[in-house]
TrEMBL record:
InterPro entries: Glyco_trans_20. It comes from Sphingomonas quercus. CDD domains: GT20_TPS. This is Trehalose-6-phosphate synthase. Belongs to the glycosyltransferase 20 family. The lineage of its organism: Bacteria, Pseudomonadati, Pseudomonadota, Alphaproteobacteria, Sphingomonadales.
Length: 462
């Protein structure tokens, strides 16, 4: 494949330490960019008084990052507004939190035009362009308007909502129509892909032709292409010195108790409130066993400019305080609640020290923490993954203990089941999950996507 241009909302240093703020994206893409002497284009995260389109280039390990600054109003309307107060909640089934404001939609469109205007002079004849995620749905259309005829793919990292939910968004048709500017669009699971096909065929009259969907003479290949982790790298991380130190630190502080680990960005879609309530139920229902365990919840704050995120933070502080107040003893606290990020190697050590990985989002495009937890385990004595049925990862990790994250009873039962699970069953389930994680890793993901992009039938090539 020729040169690769990746475009996403934010850009991370190719091998920088991972704060968690950028999610799994940075890790997933940096290797592809290194291989293809790529350019990674996006917003710098900085604010300027007046948008000029000036691009700041940086080069590191064969990867060029190209970033632009945005105006305060851009960030308010496009990022804090349409991306995080309209699309994110709607696409995660939280229509009660979704705000529909024309100003947000206008700002979203404007910033997508600004992205197109600044990136298009960088695109050369044979470049392949790969656009990432819900911030940039209309970018393909904007590039085509500027006569970019290159192959352009789009990958959605979050779920695609069911038809009737999406129909509540005033710009739903326009956004969906915009996706037909791409040659290939990728979704994390068959379920999100199916929801997209359902929307465009039933609401907009698109025609389905195998993997392709056709609307008004434009053809797009729509595939399910689940993102993976770098399994080999993660296993190696779990054996690193820092991981071992973190492992020992956790085991020492656990003083013989079993640790349950949760690692999530502080986000209402991750089901943290429900998780705490499920754990509280476990404590109440199992007074004998409960002091043999503790829950370590790591949740670095994210999107603090959005009020629903400040609210979930306050709620969780209250809830963990209440649970600890009600159950703690002289030498035991049931929940250790930590609001900061850790390096990937420390996290690997912490995962490995945990007897249970508790990953219970209410809705999640994929969820990489589930895969990282499995990859970090000791093959001889692995822990148990408790996973929400509503995470995209549940499609691949069917050997996890699958739960309905809304049900405190199911969560409580699952914790008990995991604590009692005999070693041979833990090993068997772990092996099945690990086979999948190793086979469908991050390399598989990007090869599957870029192969589809290179082989997609294009009307203009006919
Ligand atoms: P996120 O919603 O950010 O990603 P996730 O897939 O779990 O969710 O990725 C989080 C990443 O951040 C993981 O690699 C994790 O290790 C890291 N992380 C989380 N908390 C951390 C902490 N305290 N310290 C350090 N690192 C931390 C979005 C979608 C997901 C989808 C990914 C990738 O919402 O559904 O899986 O993109 O497509």
């Amino acid at each position: 494949m020729s040169r690769l241009i990746v475009i996403s909302n934010r850009v991370s240093a190719p091998r920088g330490s991972h704060s968690g703020a950028q999610g799994g994206l940075a890790v997933a893409l940096s290797a592809a960019l290194r291989e293809h002497r790529g350019i990674w284009f996006g917003w710098s995260g900085d604010i300027t008084d007046q948008f000029t389109g000036h691009i700041n280039f940086q080069r590191e390990e064969d990867v060029t990052t190209a970033t632009i600054d945005l105006e305060e109003q851009d960030v308010e309307e496009y990022y804090n507004g349409y991306a995080n107060r309209t699309l994110w909640p709607l696409f995660h089934y939280r229509i009660d939190l979704a705000e529909y404001e024309r100003g947000f939609a206008g700002g979203y469109q404007r910033v997508n035009e600004r992205f197109a205007e600044t990136v298009f002079p960088l695109i050369e004849a044979d470049d392949v362009v790969w656009i990432q995620d819900y911030h940039l749905l209309p970018l393909g259309t904007e590039l085509r308007r500027r006569n970019v005829t290159n192959r352009i793919g789009f990958f959605l990292h979050i779920p695609w909502p069911p038809r009737r939910l999406l129909s509540t968004l005033p710009e739903a048709d326009e956004l969906a129509r915009g996706l037909f500017a791409y040659d290939v669009i990728g979704f994390q699971t068959e379920e999100w892909l199916e929801a997209f096909r359902d929307f465009v065929s039933k609401e907009m009259g698109a025609e389905i032709d195998g993997d392709d969907v056709i609307l008004d003479g434009r053809r797009v290949t729509a595939i399910a292409c689940p993102i993976g982790i770098d399994a080999a790298e993660f296993r190696a991380l779990a054996g690193s010195t820092r991981a071992r130190l973190a492992f020992r630190r956790m085991r020492d502080s656990a003083v013989g108790r079993d640790m349950i680990i949760g690692v999530d960005r502080l986000d209402y879609s991750k089901g943290l409130e429900e998780r705490f309530l499920g754990y509280e139920r476990f404590l109440r229902e199992h007074p004998e066993e409960c002091k043999e365990v503790f829950l370590l919840q790591i949740a670095p704050p994210s999107r603090g400019d959005v009020s629903s995120y400040r609210k979930i933070r306050t709620t969780l502080e209250g809830l963990s305080g209440r649970i600890n107040g009600a159950f703690a003893d002289l030498d035991w606290v049931p929940i250790r609640y930590v609001n900061r990020g850790y390096s990937r190697d420390e996290l690997a050590g912490v995962y490995r020290a945990a007897r249970i990985g508790l990953v219970t989002p209410l809705r999640d495009g994929m969820n990489l923490v589930a895969k990282e937890y499995v990859a970090a385990q000791d093959p001889e004595d692995p822990g148990v993954l408790i996973l929400s049925r509503f995470a995209g990862a549940a499609q691949q990790l069917s050997e996890a203990v699958l739960v309905n994250p809304y049900s405190a009873e199911e969560l409580s039962d699952a914790i008990m089941l995991a604590l009692r699970m005999p070693r041979d069953e833990r090993v068997r389930r772990w092996r099945a999950m690990m086979d999948n994680i190793e086979e469908q890793d991050v390399l598989w993901w990007r090869q599957r996507f870029t192969d589809s992009l290179m082989s997609a039938k294009r009307l203009q090539d006919a």
